[in-house]
Structure formats: structure tokens, C-alpha cells
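WARN no homologs supplied; continuing
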Amino acid sequence: MDTQTINLITLILLAIIFVWQIYLTLTVKKYLTGKKQLLKEAQEQGVDQVLIKHQKAIKQLQARAGDLQEISEQISRVAAKSITKVGVVRFNPFGDTGGNQSFAISLLDSKSNGLVLSSLFGREGTRVYCKEVKGGLSEFPLSEEEKQSIAAAQYYGVQKELEFKNNN
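OK structure emitted
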């Protein structure tokens, strides 16, 4: 190897050592700052008092974490029973009326329980029907549009769930 190559390698090693030295200096400074704070508290209140204070703070944080866990579980139980899947199908049940003014809307929870609401618009008036849905099925006969709205709610509910999981 020639002298220039050796000098270049030495310079690179010195740069790496310099960066490493800065990192170590900052780490030690951070450590010493925390240690100074602790020692200052210990001198003012005594080591025993500082430890007792920190133990109390830890117990309070643990209690709060337990409370937050319980609240989180309650929210999860409520959310499981909430409407999370919605499917809408617009249609024209009678050929003599204009446009797709009738609809079937399914409102389902995470277990596909809920209802399907149908509105049939005609010249003589509007009729509204509501049918209970359990597990994506109904004990009442369903129209094709109602079946489609349930299927859409189940499909898009799953899609949104997957998109949410993929984004987080």
C-alpha cells in the first residue's frame, strides 16, 4: 500500500473514533445529569425518602395502568356490540317509478348481528321494513337486495378491518 492509502484509512478511522467519542460523551453526560438530579434529591430528602417516593410513584403508575387496562377491555366489549359493518343497496322495485329511490341498508356488529332496513318507494307511498339479522342470516325471508346489503356489510366490514390492521 502506498502512503496516500494508509493516510486515507487512518483519517477514516480517526473520523469514526471522533464520532464514537462524541456519542460516548453525550451518553455519559445524560447519565451524570440523571445521577445529579437523584443525588440532589437524596441530599435534600435522604436516600430512604427518595426511594419511598419513587416506590409510591411506581405503585400509582401500576394502579393507573391497571385501570387503563380495565377501561380498554370495557371499550372493546362495547365496540364488539356496536355497529361496525354497514351495507347499502339502492334499487327500483317497481318498473313504473323513476330512479333507484328504494334501498336496503344493513347495520351489523362485529359478529354480523343487527338489522336490515328496507324502504320501498312507490307512487302510492313508501313502505319500510325492518328484519333482525343474527350471524349474517335472518329468520325472515330476505329479498335479493337485502341479501346483497348484508353481504356488502360483511365484505366491506372485513375490508375496513384489514385496511385498519395493515395501516397500524
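Residues 30 and 164 are 39 Å apart (CA to CA).
OK
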